[in-house]
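Entry type: protein chain
Record version: 2
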Amino acid sequence: MSSPRKTVPGAAPEGAHDVDSAARAVREMFTSIAPRYDLLNHVLSLNIDRLWWRRTARTFTHILSQSDARVLDLCCGTGDMTFALSNQAHRSPQLLGADFSHAMLQRAQAKLLDQFSENPKTKAPRWIEADALKLPFPAERFDLVTSAFGFRNLADYNAGLREIARVLRPGGECGILDFSDPKGPFGVIYRIYFKRILPRVGTTISGVRGPYSYLPNSVERFPEPGEMLARMRAAGLREATWTPYTFGVAGLYRGKK
């Protein structure tokens, strides 16, 4: 059997041999950790993830301040990036969170009810269960498409970028926030934590074997910034840039259709 690295053009969990099996494995993985997903994100990132979401949302204030803007948060998981966008959107644009894990969307809806019950006049985000590689939207639908720590898990990176470009209107923007591989002395220390300590802690808290070993492997497999920017341009996203966050542990990719 061929190596997943050769046959799967994106995320390739152990045992995946093509795009369909890779996508299925990722969905099953995130469904299994959904109950503890938020807790683990905050614990393992030392709560820095909250700063990354808010910083990304602020980057797109010029779009979020438009009352008629249409915004899609792709691979939204339990909705943290979606809520960060909503908090930054003072004029309540049409905000939609999409994910292909039903269990994750259930958690997002529960959090939404908690957050918006105190202010029912605020326009709350909506959720849709959808595959990021086959989005159920017409072309040129959205002014902004974001994805926070989910794009890396797509079974085909290039197909994901093409879908983002397809659903963006001309002049629309995208923001992909994801992990990176920091360089220098800090990178050496971080990799020890990321590859040795994080998987053990994640497995212990979640009670599920596999997902937190997959995480560092998925980051290692993900394209370096230069390659990712080239892929974005090839998909039709111009003015592609990458801004590192927290010494390069994560970073924001931006592009415009």
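Comment: The CA atoms of residues 185 and 191 lie 10 Å apart.
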